[in-house]
Design a protein that fits this description.
118 residues, alpha+beta, single chain, 2 helices, 28% strand
Length: 118
């Protein structure tokens, strides 16, 4: 029987390494972790905005996750000097796919180098 529809969904891929990411999950360990999130195998941290309206809060959470929960370090980072930002738009958390009718956005933070001196 012929296929009557075309699947227009795509896998969720990290914008930095282009590998498939794990599904976002509830994050523990910080008072600022209100959104689902996770880490790519390349080290990039990501957080999920289910409505695409909480961008600032979700981006802050991804930055905190990338900095191990250190708010001072996260606030001292400079865009394109200390970190890169990436996005996956139209992400559906229920199917873990990028879908044309989905509203969610994944915000990614990839640190360029350690900003703390050891």
């Amino acid at each position: 029987m012929p296929k009557l529809y075309r699947d227009r969904t795509l896998p969720a891929l990290c914008p930095f390494c282009r590998k498939e990411i794990p599904p976002p999950k509830e994050m523990e360990g910080g008072q600022w972790y209100d959104f689902l999130g996770g880490f790519c195998s390349c080290g990039a941290a990501f957080a999920h905005d289910p409505t695409a309206r909480n961008g600032g809060a979700v981006l802050l959470q991804a930055m905190l996750m990338a900095c191990g929960g250190d708010m001072d370090e996260a606030m001292s980072l400079s865009y394109e000097t200390d970190y890169d930002e990436g996005h996956i738009y139209k992400y559906d958390v229920a199917t873990h796919r990028v879908e044309p009718n989905a509203f969610g956005t994944l915000y990614f933070i990839g640190l360029r180098a350690m900003t703390k001196s050891s």
